[in-house]
# Entry
Amino acid sequence: MKEGPDIAHIAALIGDPARANMLTALMSGKALTVSELAEEAGVTIQTASSHLSKLDAGGLLRPRKQGRHKYFSLANDDVAHVLEGLMGLAAGSGHLRTRTGPKDTELRKARVCYNHLAGDMGTQMFDSLMAQGHLAMDGGDLILTETGVEFTTGFQIDLSILRAKRTPLCRECLDWSERRSHLAGSLGRAFLSRFEELSWAKRDQKTRVVTFSQSGAKEFEQFFAMR
Amino acid sequence: MKEGPDIAHIAALIGDPARANMLTALMSGKALTVSELAEEAGVTIQTASSHLSKLDAGGLLRPRKQGRHKYFSLANDDVAHVLEGLMGLAAGSGHLRTRTGPKDTELRKARVCYNHLAGDMGTQMFDSLMAQGHLAMDGGDLILTETGVEFTTGFQIDLSILRAKRTPLCRECLDWSERRSHLAGSLGRAFLSRFEELSWAKRDQKTRVVTFSQSGAKEFEQFFAMR
DNA sequence: GAGATGGTTCGACTACGGTCGAAGTATGAA
DNA sequence: TTCATACTTCGACCGTAGTCGAACCATCTC
# Structure
């Protein structure tokens, strides 16, 4: 009756509307300040502060002080992963916050998941990389193959920098809208920022939507076509 | 500020201690009655009933009436998956309900996750099946290869029955203790029940622990050795 | 220094939701 | 029919936790 970790505590942390809004906002991958998160959640700064300290104590956030600002971001990919999972359940039970509107289709098309590309285009990219043999599964872990290394370096992504970090290079992340995997981990992050550098795509500042330019979408299709 | 599914609602459902206990109990994969779940959660039958109707309304459970009993089980693998994820976070933040005791090591060794094998032996089995090429990733989906079909039928598992069901044959599930994937889906379930039929292993009724007999462990090692 | 801006702490208010006793409904047994 | 068991509904109680105003720190600017 009481073995295993204490689910209830952190589920309750996520379970408050204000905190859930903050966490959802942080799924954009950006680090946000207390006041930004307060606005995002629709509460005053005081309450936001108290919420954030609780989330931090629960290990869900990573705070960083910078001058008189305090920036919060999600603690790690695992947290983002669980949040996506919860979104999947919520979406499945037909409990959408907003009725499926025009913004919803944009979110399904391409969006930011923590720090990498998700949605239709995210899964397409993942599928393509697998089909081309650039990614492979090795005993439950996702790995970058030799051709994959070539491909990414050709994409102007410096793997040595990524490998130096503690976070895993490749991870898969389950998509709540597509119910399929897409690429997470530091490589997933690198791909997305590369898309931005090449101005193939732009993140919306507020809504997690990623919009590809017309030419950007074409380039993307070129590299990540299926078959 | 309000795009995406309503995380908070279902997170709050999981966030109550009594409900979390019930859900954890259901991770054993067994369907339990209202009174059993009440005892599991340490509350009276009335409150259990109200909790269960809320969980049901949230789409987390699948109720089945049978005579004057009402059996509840987890709605699907997705729910189990999210619960495992939450356990991972809770374990990671050092928030174990019970200090890592003797039962904890048993849980890490081999346990039931919803309806399939998890823990050290679960991930070992998954890794072995991947290494032997019986399982493979195909565009984000886990599939059974041709040799995999051979292997499982040689194991006296009737695939045609499994394929007839709506639930996916193969799925991967992230392990909170090992932080690696193991095999879920109807095939994962089939393997576990086969182990029981062969009396290689036995589930403990209360604690989710799976104990392998000495000879059973040897057989297991034979079939699912790494390399 | 003084003033402004970003966060935190404290205290008081409030409301939502978990809890159980008691009564009510269904199903099964005798 | 009568009794027992399994569960649900109702109502009342109570505690916890979210909320904000006000005052308090800390950091930067001038």
About this structure: Confidence is low (pLDDT under 50) at residues 95-101 of chain A. The domain at 7-75 of chain A is CATH 1.10.10.10 (Arc Repressor Mutant, subunit A). Residues 33-35, 45-46, 48-50, 53, 67-70 of chain A lie near DNA strand C (CB under 10 Å from a C1').
